[in-house]
Design goal:
Blueprint: H1 25-29, H2 40-53, H3 55-60, E1 62-67, E2 72-77, E3 83-85, E4 90-91, H4 93-115, H5 121-125, E5 132-140, E6 148-158, E7 162-171, E8 176-185
Antiparallel strand pairs: 1-2, 2-6, 3-4, 5-8, 6-7, 7-8
Length: 187
C-alpha cells in the first residue's frame, strides 16, 4: 500500500508528520486478531512478564504504557546509567536498540494473545516461551536527548512461525528519533 511521502506498507500511528492520523484500513484488511480489550488478568500477567520477569527490561526501566491487540506502547525514563555520550547527556544507542527489540517482542506477545482469545488468559501467557528475535534493524534518525522517551510497536504480519514488526522511538515532544523493524520466531 503506497503511503504519502513515498512510504510503502501499512500506515504507522504516532507520526508527528503530515500522516499523523492513523488509517485503520490496513489493519481491517489484514487483521492480527480480534481488536478487543484484553482481560485484566491477561494484562497483569503480561505486564509482570515484561516488566519484572524479563530482568533486562527491568534493568532498563522499560514500562508498558498501553497494551492492545493491535498495538503496544511503552515509556523509558532517562537515567544517568543509560547515557551514551556524557557531554550531551545522550541516550546510548544500545539502549535504544534493546528497547525497540523489547517493544517488538511485546507487540508479538499481544498479537499472539489476541489470536488465541478462545483460551484462558493463563493459557495464552504460556505461549511466549519460544519467542525470540531473528532479525533487528534500527535506524537512528536524531540523537535521543530528553527526560523520557515513548515507544510504539505493531505487528505487520503474524505467521504460524515468524512475526514481522515495526517500532518507533520518540522524544517526549513526539518527535521521531529512531525507527526499527524486526522479525521474531513465535513457535
Amino acid at each position: 500500500m503506497a503511503q504519502p511521502h513515498g512510504r510503502v506498507g501499512p500506515p504507522f500511528w504516532g507520526r508527528a508528520e503530515p500522516c499523523a492520523v492513523r488509517d485503520n484500513s490496513w489493519m481491517s484488511k489484514h487483521p492480527v486478531g480480534t481488536v478487543a480489550d484484553f482481560e485484566p488478568e491477561f494484562v497483569a500477567g503480561l505486564k509482570a512478564i515484561f516488566e519484572e520477569r524479563i530482568v533486562f527490561n527491568q534493568l532498563l526501566g522499560l514500562k508498558i504504557a498501553s497494551l492492545r491487540p493491535d498495538r503496544v506502547a511503552g515509556r523509558l525514563a532517562m537515567r544517568p546509567e543509560l547515557v551514551g555520550h556524557f557531554a550531551f547527556n545522550r541516550l546510548h544507542g544500545g539502549v535504544v536498540s534493546a528497547c525497540l527489540d523489547a517493544m517488538g517482542g511485546l507487540a508479538c506477545m499481544a498479537a499472539i494473545g489476541a489470536r488465541h482469545m478462545d483460551e484462558t488468559p493463563q493459557a495464552r501467557l504460556q505461549r511466549f516461551g519460544k519467542l525470540g528475535t531473528i532479525d533487528l534493524r534500527v535506524d537512528y534518525l536524531r540523537p535521543a536527548i530528553g527526560d523520557h522517551f515513548d515507544l510504539h510497536a505493531e505487528v505487520l504480519r503474524l505467521g504460524s512461525r515468524v512475526a514481522s514488526t515495526r517500532m518507533e522511538f520518540t522524544g517526549a515532544d513526539g518527535k521521531l528519533l529512531c525507527t526499527g523493524a524486526a522479525a521474531y520466531i513465535v513457535s
